[in-house]
Amino acid sequence: MRWTFACIIVAILVPAAARAQFTESAIASGTVPSGQTLATSTALTVPAAPNLVVVSAIGSATTCSTGYSPTVSISNGTHTYLPTAHSPVYSGFNNCPLVATAYYINESAASETLTATFDSTSHPYVIMATSYSVSGGNAAYDLDESNVTTTNTATPIIVPSITPSGAGELLYGTANPYGGLTASGSPWTVGNNLSSGQGEIDIYQLSGPSGASTPLFYDSNNPDTWVSIVAAWKIVSAAVPIAPRRILEY
User: Fold this and answer.
1) Cβ-contact 175, 157 below 8 angstroms
2) Domain count within the chain
3) pTM
4) What is the residue-wise DSSP string for 149-189?
5) Which of 160, 182, 215, 227 could pair with 145 as two cysteines, CB 3.0-4.6 Å apart?
């Protein structure tokens, strides 16, 4: 009797996992018409999922009070965006600056109108939105940090410090001083830049460092009171290639 031995190696071919990274896709902003209504809107183009949309609304309280707790809701008309942990940030001193940041992961609409609605004791100035495409997995919120000044403080604004969970995260920040923001600097990139209103901007790093980072805003009215917020998102659930399997037949 003759025996035949065969060894068959089967390799399951899987495309190599994409590099985990964020890429800015689109920016959009809107201002409030004269008369100071309670809402401000903007239309934003959104890339196909996986994606991340980050929105900030800037305004102030009608009456300054250290005991005031403002509310700001950001929505696309279908669902409400998720506020970052410290949002909204408010100072009860000198013009009562207020800033709120919210986000949504894997938005399905190719375009949408985003609206920030303030409570009846505050009013908005501008809304700023940015969409990011995500490769190598899905975006996930990591953390945020905020800062509030109670006296006129010299600028540039370089607080708060934020330390993300690891390197390569998207870092995003904005601030609201009385005099308005004019510019930023390396390693930050300016996203939205409004010449109207108070001169608001938002800034980002597509791939931040593993250690602490501080924002960099230049204020047109130095010194000033201001509030600021910086947030971080990471990429998780990246695809893992399937290893080749060996099948033995006798």
Assistant:
1) yes
2) 1
3) 0.86
4) -SS-B-SSB----B--SSTT-EEEEEEEESS-EEE--TT-E
5) 160
Cβ atoms of 205 and 167 within 8 Å: the answer is no
Q: Which domain holds residue 69?
A: 19-239
What does the alpha-carbon distance between residue 232 and residue 101 come to, in Å, rounded to a whole number? 11
Q: Is residue 248 part of a domain?
A: no
The answer to whether the CB of 138 falls within 8 A of the CB of 236 is: yes
pLDDT category of residue 247 using cuts at 50, 70 and 90: very low
Say whether 230 sits in a helix, a strand or coil: strand
Task: Determine the 3-state secondary structure of 239 from DSSP.
Answer: coil
4, part of any domain: no
Distance, CA of 250 to CA of 248 (rounded, Å): 7
- CB atoms under 10 Å from CB of 225, counted, come to 22
Report the Cα–Cα distance between both ends of the chain, in Å, rounded: 14
